[in-house]
Amino acid sequence: MRSGWKSKRSSGIRLRRSMKGFRWLQLVKIRISLSAAVSSLIGYMIYSNTLDINAMELSFGVFFLACGAGAMNHYQDRFVDRHFSRTSNRPLPRNLISPPRVLFFSACLMFLGLAVIYLSRSSHWAWFTGMIAVLCYNGLYTPLKKRTNLAMIPGMFCGMIPPLIGWVAAGGPIASPQIIVLMGIWGLWQLPHFWLLILNNQKEYRESDVPNMLHQLSGSQLKRILLVWIFGFACLAFLLPVVHVLIHPWAHWFLAAGLFSMAAAFTYFLLLKDDLKKYSHLFIGLNYTMGFILTLIFVDRLTILSF
User: Domain limits at 236?
Assistant: First the structure.
C-alpha cells in the first residue's frame, strides 16, 4: 500500500515537472525558431555549396536567438494576450511563470544565440543581421502592433532576415538575385500567415482595441487581398528555378505541383466554400507549403554539396 502511494507521488512529481518544462517550451515558439534556423542553413548552403560545421553552428545560433526573441515577445505581449482566446492560455497570461524570470530567460537565450553566431567563424555580417532581426521583431514590430497596422512592415521585414543571415555568413553579396528572391518569398509568406489568424478569430479582432485589418475592411475584402497576396507568393516562388536556387528539373516539377495545389486550395476555400473551419485548414496548409519549399531546396542542394 505504501509502495503504491510512493509510486503515485513520484508519477505526480514527474507530471508536474514535465508541465513546467512545457510552459518554458511554449515561450520559445519552437516551430518558428526551428523555421528560422533551417532558413539560415538554406541561405548558407545556396551560396557556399557546402554543409560544414560552420553552417551547423550558425543554424544553432539562429535557433537560440529566435527562441530568445520569441520569449521576449511573450513578455512584451503578456497584457494583450489575456484578451484573445488564441493566446490567453499562454504561461504569462495565466501567471504560471513570473515576468522577470521570462525576461532573464529571454536575455540569456539571445546572448547565447549571438555568441554562437559570432563564434561560428562566419562573416561578422551574420552577427549584425541577427541583431537587426531582433531589433525589428522586439524593438519595432511587437510594440508597434498595439498602435498601428503599419507594424506589419517591420514584421514582414523581420521574417525575411533568416535566409539572409546564412547567406552573408557564407560571404554572399546582398545584391544577388538569389537572396533577393528568397527574402521576398519569406516576406510574402508572413502577412497571409497573420491574416488567416485574424479571419479565424474575426469577432475577437473586430471588438479588440488592438489595430488590425478588420477595423478598416470587411472579412470579404480581406479574403480577396489575401488571395492576391497568395498568388504573388506563388509567382515569386516560381522564380526559384530561374535564379538557380533550385537546380534539377525534378525539383522544378515538384515545386510547380506544390504551388498549383496551394493556389487551387486557397481559391476554392476563400471564394467557393463558406466554412469557418477553412481558415485553420488554410493556415496549416500555408505552413506546410513553406516547409515543402524549404525541404525541396535542401534536398535539391544536397545532390551538389561538398561536405
Answer: 175-307
What DSSP assignment string belongs to the chain?
-HHHHHHHHHHHHHHHHHHHHHHHHHHTTHHHHHHHHHHHHHHHHHHH-B--HHHHHHHHHHHHHHHHHHHHHHHHTTTGGGG-TTTTTSTTTTTSS-HHHHHHHHHHHHHHHHHHHHTTT--HHHHHHHHHHHIIIIIIIHHHTTT-GGGHHHHHHHHHHHHHHHHHHTT--TT-HHHHHHHHHHHHHHHHHHHHHHHHTHHHHHH-SS--GGGTS-HHHHHHHHHHHHHHHHHHHTTTTTTTSS-SHHHHHHHHHHHHHHHHHHHIIIII---TTHHHHHHHHHHHHHHHHHHHHHHHHHTT-B-
Give residue-wise pLDDT tens across range 247-299.
999 999 999 999 999 999 999 888 877 666 788 889 999 999 999 999 999 99
Could you identify the residue written with the cell 505552413? 287
pTM: 0.89
Domain boundary among 172, 196, 218: 172
**Residues 31 and 140 grouped into a single domain:** yes
Q: Are residues 53 and 138 in the same domain?
A: yes
